[in-house]
Model the fold of this input.
Amino acid sequence: MLPFGFTQPKEWPRLLQQRSCFYLLPFLYFYFQYIFSLLIFLNKNKNQFTPNSEIHNYATRQQINFHLPQANLTKCQKGIGYLGIKVFNKLPQYPKEEFDNPKKFKENLKNYLSVKTFYSLQEFFEL
Done:
């Protein structure tokens, strides 16, 4: 079975070279799944993390973000909690707005990540 009317599987590599068409394929690439699972973990365990609004009482643009704890070891910085917060803080505003509603958050997150294709975490953080 070929996706979206392609007649030959030999056309797939040509399609894979075009970043803008990557989201049309029926499978999810690794960094989509990795970023998505980090943020779903953060959403399910949000009571374990401190939002910036609890650190100070000033109304800033960053108050919806989570406070990044101090981590001196690289092992801690590569952990799921630290990296999840870092990824969440880097998201644009519209996926974050529905963070309290898990269904809406997943939907907004899937829409954002399917339009933007990332081939590494470094590429995600540079955006």
